[in-house]
Design a protein that fits this description.
This protein has 58 residues and is mostly helical. It has a domain of 35 residues. Helix 2 runs antiparallel to helix 3.
């Protein structure tokens, strides 16, 4: 529970700069690739943090 709260605070404080967004996306990709049990959560966080207009539909 504490880890979830900490992650929430961290993601809310991330400045939407291209460098920070790229770093966060790479980190989430590594988590999803190397820790299959966390893959759905990593994808959800990635989609929630991005501007949804940039995500391909379909």
């Amino acid at each position: 529970m504490a880890a979830r709260a900490g992650w929430s605070l961290t993601t809310e404080r991330v400045v939407k700069s291209p460098e920070v967004q790229w770093t966060m996306n790479c980190s989430l990709a590594e988590i999803g690739i190397h820790f299959p049990k966390h893959r759905k959560r990593a994808l959800a966080v990635g989609y929630n943090r991005q501007d949804s207009s940039n995500i391909p539909k379909g």
